[in-house]
Amino acid sequence: MSSHPRVRVAIVGATGYTGAELLRLLLSHPHVEITALCARDKLTPRASTMLPALTGLVELPIEPFDADVVARKADVAFCALPHGASIECVRSLRARGVTVLDLSADFRLRDPSVYARWYGAAHTAEDLLAEAVYGLPELHRDALRGARLVAVPGCYPTASTLPLLPLLASGLARPEDLIVHALSGVSGAGRSANASTHFSECAEGVRSYKIAGTHRHTPEIEQTLAHVAGAPVTITFSPTLTPMTRGILSTVYARPSHEQVDVAALVEAARRYYASSPSVAVLDAGMYPDTLWVRGSNRAHIAYFYDARAKRIVAQGAIDNLVKGASGQAIQCMNLACGFDEAAGLRAPAMFP
Amino acid sequence: MSSHPRVRVAIVGATGYTGAELLRLLLSHPHVEITALCARDKLTPRASTMLPALTGLVELPIEPFDADVVARKADVAFCALPHGASIECVRSLRARGVTVLDLSADFRLRDPSVYARWYGAAHTAEDLLAEAVYGLPELHRDALRGARLVAVPGCYPTASTLPLLPLLASGLARPEDLIVHALSGVSGAGRSANASTHFSECAEGVRSYKIAGTHRHTPEIEQTLAHVAGAPVTITFSPTLTPMTRGILSTVYARPSHEQVDVAALVEAARRYYASSPSVAVLDAGMYPDTLWVRGSNRAHIAYFYDARAKRIVAQGAIDNLVKGASGQAIQCMNLACGFDEAAGLRAPAMFP
Amino acid sequence: MSSHPRVRVAIVGATGYTGAELLRLLLSHPHVEITALCARDKLTPRASTMLPALTGLVELPIEPFDADVVARKADVAFCALPHGASIECVRSLRARGVTVLDLSADFRLRDPSVYARWYGAAHTAEDLLAEAVYGLPELHRDALRGARLVAVPGCYPTASTLPLLPLLASGLARPEDLIVHALSGVSGAGRSANASTHFSECAEGVRSYKIAGTHRHTPEIEQTLAHVAGAPVTITFSPTLTPMTRGILSTVYARPSHEQVDVAALVEAARRYYASSPSVAVLDAGMYPDTLWVRGSNRAHIAYFYDARAKRIVAQGAIDNLVKGASGQAIQCMNLACGFDEAAGLRAPAMFP
Amino acid sequence: MSSHPRVRVAIVGATGYTGAELLRLLLSHPHVEITALCARDKLTPRASTMLPALTGLVELPIEPFDADVVARKADVAFCALPHGASIECVRSLRARGVTVLDLSADFRLRDPSVYARWYGAAHTAEDLLAEAVYGLPELHRDALRGARLVAVPGCYPTASTLPLLPLLASGLARPEDLIVHALSGVSGAGRSANASTHFSECAEGVRSYKIAGTHRHTPEIEQTLAHVAGAPVTITFSPTLTPMTRGILSTVYARPSHEQVDVAALVEAARRYYASSPSVAVLDAGMYPDTLWVRGSNRAHIAYFYDARAKRIVAQGAIDNLVKGASGQAIQCMNLACGFDEAAGLRAPAMFP
């Protein structure tokens, strides 16, 4: 099926949700051999002890991170560590020539002063920032080909910018006055157990958090939108926790640039924009994206509505936060970086129901 | 505890979710005796057959609706029927002198032409419209005292207008450019089983429906806001189905009327506005409403945020759609109509977790 | 409504789930005034900060436990602490004359050697064990009247013994060869967050734990059954975690004592046995208990089936683990201890849906 | 990757959950080309209209069933129709030489009189029964090679017999006195919406149904166990609905044939029995199967416990009811029937979380 030799891949941070999801997806990837698993805790001689879903499928150990070992065993490393913890790991791997897909926030913001303001600490690897490519293939496909350090986007930014990009690129929507109301499943909070991820306090409740300009994905979304709009963008962003495991449904409110806008024009612009993007489906007018329809897949479903009474565009994007919002997108970037087909290993449809 | 004689109460539409919830709440009401239960189907000699939660607690039959029988057995009737089906039931009961709390949409819109436009049929009881009082006690408390026909508000309108009323009444927010993004639990769709309420298609998915000016609660919300603003209001409204049984979390985006607005001012205005309202709690600055914190109670939790970067007010209201959004609010209106304490039978805190 | 003076009540361990549930239920109790709240952490000048459901309803502080203070402020104390932590608290309160309802396991097992075997530590208050009454009102109603120390049963034992008691007392079932397969909601694991209560790892999975004679509720169930059977009882017990917040559904398999048994006889025996028990409803033959039908209420629904092919009785009990399985049952015991109506404050039906 | 030509496959009953799952799995199968989709309703020129997860992935129409058309387009047909409806469809396809994987119950029971007793109608295709092979590859692997009509087992029978087969085959457990307590996700009830699948009535409740010898999977389980035990088997079977979409956790209680049994012996016997079965993993002693660990995969996790106090074996099996319990198992059978590797297209690990 393929003439590519398999690349050897390491996963650093293998025991969190995005690490586990990388394992799930890479096991079916035609051009990949998983050769090393590292983590900061939950070390074990057999990965399946920590991740019983892999019983009989993966028998690698989960070991402490050692850059020399990883560089010897792997050509490509996925770093699925918390922000802050990622910088030194990435530096050590890049110094040894390993291609790195970094899933943390550490290399996403181009401007270190913005990083410092939102993450509360000076960026300690500005040299690497220059090398890093922002891993939204639908926007930076060419730059990702052959990239050696990829900053994989956050889940909210992916779901929120995908429906907006065609509108800003085409000029159909105005870049000011944008509101992003985004619903996330609980796995977005990571595998750490705390009050806000306790089943009993999630299962029958919804609540927002870090709204009104306080969530760290705000500047990341703005950076991408500004890149396309060609001007600074300020959004109002409302992340909201909903009782499901996976999924983000992001609703974007925007003003049309003129009053003749209609849904057909919005859909048409988006279909043109994403014509060569295997991971984005623009739904027919009248259909509503549902996170269930993309769960487990590397696909974004986007849709457009026009409120003629209020003269406002409503656009929605649905993704699986762990796939197109993290691990799947990282693999999509790896495919481009390594010269594989962009969709290699990522063609499986969503699991419904 | 009370010198009130008990009023005799009938529930018409006892087998749906709001009917069942009326039963639950009225069973603990100090001034009420439930004397008749009617429904269109699921008739049974013993209510507990249809509603096993009542086993050993309620042994009334569920009978077909007969206005004469209801008028003989009850002083007050709650009509929990679908819109359209309610009008004739209400007319027949009012003709016999029964006080009616109508939970349908049939008497909510003051202007019959608006009703006709959104509900697709001419209103056939314009005479009764004049008598009907819109049952939002926080806004129409005085008119509800002694009322004989109350149009109990919809769940979305209750959750969405409560946080906005103080802002519009005080002039802190501007009445144009309003967006309402509201999340609802599945019970809001009623007890009828269909694809969109199937567990397997709800449990791990979120999706919007009837957005961009198409949901029938849109004119109801606008009517209430216009009443307070003193001018027509047009909103963008996005109802969204989330995988929980009960609850609405409504997020409202509004423009401040001047730039010196801050959260403290918003909270202060709301606390003043709701000072004598037992069913509304204005949360401290920094706290987020959670539908879990109001589940099962007749309380609304509202909270305010200010996005200084984008110069936008974000206000939220959380209610239980079946209680403050339907049956509890109907009882609150009954209390006012009958001269009871507004909170009688409605003081129970939420069930957490 | 009542000529009883209100008893002054303290809750020790107010911030866990059973503590919060005591607050919810006691706020509606006609003969109770809550006067003190204590906890080991989450201390706060205003309880509603930790339990926002109480905003505007309870403004007591949550303070560290001090036996002198509690004894001065309260006549009755509910101790909702983990086992082990409870013994000293109970001792100090009993020494000061406070009536104690203890929700921990510390005083449930009559035989200290059994306690030592299952809880891994010698019992340090054998003197108090003699005073303690096991708080299953359906079995020990008379002993509970006027009791000063009540060991409130565990959730699994309550749900599992209630359907069996009438069968063993009547001799319809044999006391050997008993299997208890019980499903629990996640709140049964308490408010502490850990991997096994993480929403993402509960919401779409079921798994057993501590089966085959290893769960600590095993000897408690056996003790109660042996008391009724008049002989030692050994059960096989399989607790299983299911993705719901509240509820226990316990299925019991038993051998009939003779082959002429049928469902009618089982139901009849149970109805006779529970004729004067306000918290137990024996369902009609053919109906299945559902945890949803008892959620939030202090009621147990029990039902009987007979597998004539395999000659085996199948009995089921459904309760809300936080109410009839903990806090509600504790209040039921308090009612008996204080001479109130057994059902005072506990009459509310379940919240459906 | 493969020298096999692709077989052309039709799915009859493509719009139900097992039909949708066949589509999901077959799209990734290396030796399959999907050529026809049929259904009884929800007909559409584009499958993705009914199954939006397939948007951009499958553009076949969903058409009414026509045996001639299916026989012309496909070599192999999966019939995912309700029992009763399947018989004629299977007959017409077999008459035209199409290999059939039937997911209904119509060809599972070897004895037509047992079928008549449990399904309430005489079997109308006894001739085909002789040809049908029961599709549990772990038991009938050889008979499945080259089979032309396969009766794919039910979900409960798969989860319940897999842990028992090694015990009965090895003689470690006795074939009498067996109890099967099985928990199922809601998708097991199919895609039809009714009261028992309504989110609001499932999400926070568990309840059994058709217990004590009344569920139609009872004779199917007994038939398989009797085959291995070499003697008639009668079980007590308790199916129970739990609030999750996918998964079955079946707990089996059995008596050991002698008292020296221990967990190590049980695990060892099972590992030997399933040594060449790619879809069964026998967990290490002490691990509990979790439906979440097999969700979306064609794998069964089985585990063994021994209750030495009560001298009883407790065995558990966890599967995804739509995969190893239906569509995945059907594909596994197809692989054997067509001479492919048994695990072709079925190697993906579970989706966690």
Describe it for me?
The structure is a homotetramer of 353-residue chains. The longest helix of chain A has 16 residues, at 155-170. Chain A contains twelve helices and 14 strands. The first copy, chain A, folds into two domains: 7-152 and 325-338, NAD(P)-binding Rossmann-like Domain (Rossmann fold); 156-321, Dihydrodipicolinate Reductase, domain 2, CATH 3.30.360. In chain A, the strands form two sheets. A seven-stranded parallel sheet of chain A has the order 3-2-1-4-5-7-6, sandwiched between helices. A seven-stranded mixed sheet of chain A has the order 9-10-8-11-14-13-12. By secondary structure, the first copy, chain A, is α/β, with parallel strands linked by helices. Chains A and B meet through strand 8, strand 9, strand 10, strand 11 and strand 13 of A and strand 8, strand 9, strand 10, strand 11 and strand 13 of B.
Record the SSE blueprint.
The structure is a homotetramer of 353-residue chains.
Chain A: E1 7-12, H1 17-26, E2 32-38, H2 47-50, E3 62-63, H3 67-73, E4 76-79, H4 85-95, E5 99-102, H5 112-119, H6 126-131, E6 133-134, H7 137-144, E7 149-151, H8 155-170, E8 178-184, H9 199-202, E9 207-208, H10 217-229, E10 235-241, E11 248-254, H11 263-273, E12 280-282, E13 300-307, E14 312-319, H12 323-338
Parallel strand pairs in A: 1-2, 1-4, 2-3, 4-5, 5-7, 6-7, 8-10, 12-13
Antiparallel strand pairs in A: 8-11, 9-10, 11-14, 13-14
Helix pairs in contact in A: 1-12, 7-12, 8-10, 8-11
Quick overview:
The structure is a homotetramer of 353-residue chains. With 353 residues, chain A is an alpha/beta fold.
